[in-house]
User: Fold these one by one.
Assistant:
Number 1:
Amino acid sequence: MVKISRNIVTTQLQLFLLAASLLFIFKIFFGSSDSVYLRIILDLLIAASIFFLLIALIRFENSRTTAPLSLIMNIGILSAIMFFIITFSDYLMPNIFDNINLKLKNPGLVYDIVSVFYVLVFIGFVSYFLLTLRHFFFLNQGRNIRIYFNTMLVFFILASLSGNFFQAESVSFLSSTFFIVSVLLMVFNSIRISWIAFLSKKEKIYLLLLSFVITTLFIVNINNSSGDNIHSQMLNAFSPSLKQFNVIVMVYGSIYFLILFFTTLFHLPTAEAFDRKAQEVTSLQYFSKLITEVLDFNDLAETVTDIAQKLSGSKATWIIWKNGAKQNSLAARNIGFVESDKVTNQILERISFENLTSTRTFNLKEKISEGSTSNSLSVVSVSPIKTRGETQGILVAAKGSGQIFTQDDLNAMETFSDYASVAIENSRLLEESIEKERLEKELDVAREIQRKILPLQVPRYPNLQVASVFIPAFEVGGDYYDFFKISETKLGFVIADVSGKGISAAFIMAEVKGIFESLSKTIERPKEILIKANEILKEALDNKTFVSAAYGYFDLAEKKLVFSRAGHCPLFLLRGGDSKQIKPSGLGLGLSETDYFEKTLEEYSIDLKENDTIVLYTDGVTEAKNELLEDFGDKLFLEALQSNINLTAEELSNKIIKEITVFSSGHEQYDDITLVIFKWQQ
Amino acid sequence: MAEFSTSVRENGDISIINLKGFLDAHTAPTLENNFTQLINDSKFKIVVNFEDLAYISSAGLGVFMAYIESIRDNKGDIKLTNMSDKVFNIFDLLGFPLLYEIYKNEDEALKKFSGS
């Protein structure tokens, strides 16, 4: 695209140069002739030069975007140069021509060359002025504006030519008529200047000065061009039409810039308000984008205070965020945390989170000097940031003494804090769902660990039926059980429950497994094993985590069960029609020092009889809940065991689990369920 | 999740924490904050009233373990009162009666503090 437009520009420039060269040759051969036809040809050549240069400039102009202000600056510079050329030509040209007349044989030729160049320079000036004014004109939007502009140009040309060709008394009125119509069209085309509305106040002041200077320069230049000086003489001698056209374009320029000057002047009082509104619109657009883009809470808070500061024109902004029972300052902008805390304290003396429902403003009792600046903060506006319908934060904007929050400021802050609330709520919800996903992944890992830790199958012994059932809860509950083949006639077992849930409980389970696996290989007595396990775990666990456990072994040769209980659920012994809950004393592992643990720990021994059923479980069994939040409990558990006592261990465990499942069908399983059943059959 | 709340009262130099609802891994931080606050304020004589507590999980029990050492190091104690049978049973299984003084009602616990 750029390349193509460059090519077009080059073509137009070539045409301009061709026309200019023809002009040059024409002037040298025919000089200043009085023939009407030659004058017409000359004017046509001038018109062609201006036309092609103008087209080239327009094409070039369209290929890039230039700010109106820099174009105006260019005009200013050019009109200043023009002023100097016109002024100096008055002093320099006569000297130069005098020298030429003295030294050269053919002064007419040199004079022609100089005048052609001089004229070309002015063709350049005029084309550029016309181009820029056209550019400004087309900044206005409206119907048929092209027609208005072209009509005006036609009258420019008519006015220029008529002065040259209709000099007779009878038709001289035509020239002035065309001129007057041109001026009317200039005024008409200049009155609607809308583009300055979008400039900032600073730019408007700049524009005001610039347009004043340019108007003055144009008027001075018109005056100089129409007078009886060298410049005027040179142009007139070359072509009166060109001189007239030059003057008309300058008149257009001075009218445009005069109107621009007054329009800017009238816009100036509202410039600040307009600036503010423009800022608000951009900020709100920016912020609605933020709602969908910024997701990190801290980034969001920074952006909120940044925009709030611009929006309200405040010196400093920050957010007071409620964090449990405390409040802290977030994302302080243009103020230190020490100063912002001082102001925060004053604010919280006046208002509370609960009763702040809309934006308010008040003066600070005690002014806070902020940083190195001498101006101290004296007035604040506070807006609520709500999540879930509750005020969770306060957006504070502070201004220095002598400044006030206008109703517009407060309205803007009110709207803005609503936006901020939505954005913050969004980011919080997202954070929550990410956290939830992370937690679920973590729980997958925990369940996997637990699955690998628990025994794959139960051991087989000739006279002892062994059955176990384990049902994990969604949040891994930390249940652990295991069997240890101590010898051909001895079977060790452990059942344990780690306090807490999830991945941390799963890791502790793994540790507990390691401890019991190694201890059971070297130590036989349950009491000693638990004492050792307590010693290790007291060291390893933090002081709020503990493990309940029961460890024991069956001696098949001696027909004996020996076990100790460290804070775990009791053991059930079902013998004949009777049932017995066996609960020897013992503290949970990791709760107390070795001495005290040892002192309070008992060991219990049972001589086994035919069909003795021994049941171990974790609290997930007895604390399984129904929809009324009632526990399954010891009583139902025992009843279920007793009424199915004739089943094998395997069948019995399945039956019990079925009963628990039926009981708790209306309630989500909250804890792991572990059930281990031994049945002694000689 | 189940609801849990606490309230703290002063009785002379003794602080009484009332528990209400379900104390488990999710609600334990509320009670932890109470203990931290009391320890920061150098209030080491603490009675915990379980009258309105419906349920306590192992993680809930852990809260008491977490602070008992520092409180006893400062010549204070945590005494537990007004437990329902169900809650007492959970404490009992783990052997807590061996580690903590558990009383039927607040008065007994308060007397015990002023007596010692």
Note: The interface with chain B takes residues 324, 497-501, 542-546, 548, 566-570, 583, 585-588, 591-592, 596, 600, 619, 631, 671 of chain A (CB under 8 Å).
Number 2:
Amino acid sequence: MPRTHINCTVNGDAVDFLADDATSLLDALRDELSLTGAKEGCATGDCGACSILVDGKVNCACLMFAPEAEGRDILTVEGIADGDHLHPLQQTFLEGAALQCGICTPGFLVAAKALLDENPEPTETEIRFALAGNLCRCTGYDKIIRSVQEAAVQLKGATT
Amino acid sequence: MTATDAPKSTDYKWVGTRPIRHDGYDKVTGKARFAADLNLPGQLRGAFLRSPHAHARIVSIDTSAAEAMPGVKSVVTGADFPDLDAKNPDHDVAVNIIARDTVFYNGHVIAAVAATTRPEAEAAAAAIEVEYELLPAVLTIDESLAEGAPLANANNLTKFVKGGEPSNLATVTDLDRGDVEAAFAAADVVVEHEFDTAAVHQGYIEPHGCVVDVGPDGKADIWASSQGHFRVRSMTATTLGWDTARVKVTPAEIGGGFGGKTTIYLEPIAARLSEKAGRPVKIVMTRAEVMQATGPAPSSQSRVKIAATKDGELTAMDASFAYGVGAFSSMAGLIGAMSVASYKFPNLKLHAVGALTNTPKSAAYRAPSAPHASFAIESVVDEIAQKLDMDPIEIRLKNAVVEGDPTSMGMPQPKVGFVECLEALRDSEHYQSPVPEGAARGIGTGFWFNIGEQSSATVNLNENGTATVITGSPDIGGSRASMALMAAEELGIDVYSITPVVADTEAVGFTDVTEGSRATFATGMAVVNACRELVEELRARAAKMMKVDVEAVSWVDGSAVAEGQDPISLAAITAKAKSTGGPLNATGSLNAAGAGPSFAVHCCDLKVDEETGHVDILRYTAVQDAGTAIHPSYVEGQMQGGSVQGIGWALNEEYVFNDDGVMVNAGFLDYRIPVASDLPMVETIIVEVPNPSHPYGVRGVGETGIVPPMATVGNAIQRATGTRMTSLPMSPPKILAALDNEG
């Protein structure tokens, strides 16, 4: 199958790679760019483990074809921290024990970042609905929700 | 505030604190490597051909077309694997991972292909031609147990029955104590119901995956996600007919298991494909494959009849449980009978069976078999409380087992904290608060044994006074942090100067699977034993440095202390290790006895929408006896996670099969596990009744939390609607139907 040459920005870096038209963006990120932070839990858009930001909006990387990334600005979990300085969400997830096995964590962090970027003071209900597309089987969500709430408080404190 | 400043639950310095888990940084930055995250040079991708039939004889398999397809490097069928003796404990695993002459369920693997890409492997697998002769299939417990039913698996011989002919019964267990008939005749109240529960999946988000490289020396290097890589090693070697020494297994991070990753599906297939192709092979299941062909928890049918006096003493229970275990033998029935252990029941009659069906081989799921039995028993006990106008906690307190009371099997309970859990819920703010307008409140309880088994640990002190704690227990819920905390407490050094490692099968001593809530308990003891040996050695080294007798040296808060001498810190001793006798390290190993059973009590406020049948959980509290909470945050996490899995089991989750035995909801869209917007916070109350058999009192907390929710939710629904739900899941259509019947 002919392969397409794709140019895009991933985690702030200009990158290019080859992919055939049937390859998902998730497979391209993982196999062509070795960014294995986004996970495949279902490949049908039901679990959110592959959540990435495309031009700032949450997407399931498994539901996009790789050529759709052309010219887009993509953020994966690997790009959330500022070098070794963790994003407040990463820090509150650690301190709040919001992860057990950790397979869903990259997707939750990306989806939660998108939420807080758009809505810096979400209610608990807004957080729960914003993250309803991300499945976690270990935690029962309690500590995830609390960690997002705490990150929102910290981010607000940092900007005022 | 750092996380470790949070309030401690004990008087220890480290045990009971809440440090950031050591493996956490890799998991929030995307660096942690799970099964599917490894790629090797020259790696091929594997794919399967699976049975479209629930039960059929394989007449012939033609792989020639597949082998000629682009990119294909190797193809295997059941003929590429040895037939194990029927008495081999791994016989059924061997047949389950790839069919020989018969397929036993829809989705049973028939052949596998390795090709340069996954699409090529999938296309080639689809091109394999198989001729089948259909056999009659049994799909439900009723069909399995019917007189004259066809055999689901002609190789199955019933266990615990002398001279057993092939049958659909996996096990038959009968327990009898006291005089049940007399007790029922004398009872003031008798309540009896029949219950059924659908098969459910563990629902781990990470599909099974592995990378296997068989080298020219014939050795297999395996990278796999599992709850126990030593079991992956032994099962892989056995099913290939290999010596164990040919297999090395490196544990990947595991993306959830809950019991479902205590067995194998992929590794021997990938090994044989790799051996044939001379290249590494990676296989990762699709979600549909995970649902169709890996470990559901059994379905069940049960009947429970309980007698009580007017004072609320439960005098007798007569119960039968049938577990639909899938296409291979299983201990689910026996374990279900054994899990009946919460109430004294002076008179008890139990009958429990496992029934084979042509559905996927069932696997362990968190406190396996206990939720089914507990749903039934706790529902009936709750109804007795209502009939007697008793508080539901009060009736349970009156009958709760304490140390010395027998379980269903007659073994005396060790020191347990059931009463303490019930009292903690009774006295909680939740239980004391008024039930919200329009809602109802239910409670339920659960029990799980917990287990010990074999563990090994190595502790290396580094030259700068830090330590590496190496174990063979895959960390499925924060156990590395627990190991580090116990080592910090023993050695008297900072928890962050300890690096906990889960090592491969060639780098640490044999360790059983992470299951039965045993890792922090048993592997923790191996760590403690190694640390204690090290402390002895540290005292000896310090005595040498101080030029005093070792008896004069004690170990206090990370330093050697002797009268008239300046204390010498652990780091000062390790810095001088070369001149005092060489590197400091020690191993601990044991077959742990004295696992402490854990009880849990849950409470739920909910509303039922009588128009739609939807249940809205408003408030949920989980109380559980942890023995001692080594890392309270992860104890809470286990309680919360178990609770929500149980809520899913109660309200939504079920395997739906069509008449041909095909699972028709094999994906997360149609097999719907709870999502964040379905739930409230899950409040936790950790009860600590220390287990006297563990140096820190650990009981193990992973499993019990899934046992109470189904009855907790069902009892609340009953109190909300006046209707007893006896069938799981209590999904909207069933609730509407039940309400209609009542109306």
Note: Chain A touches chain B through 58 residues (CB under 8 Å).
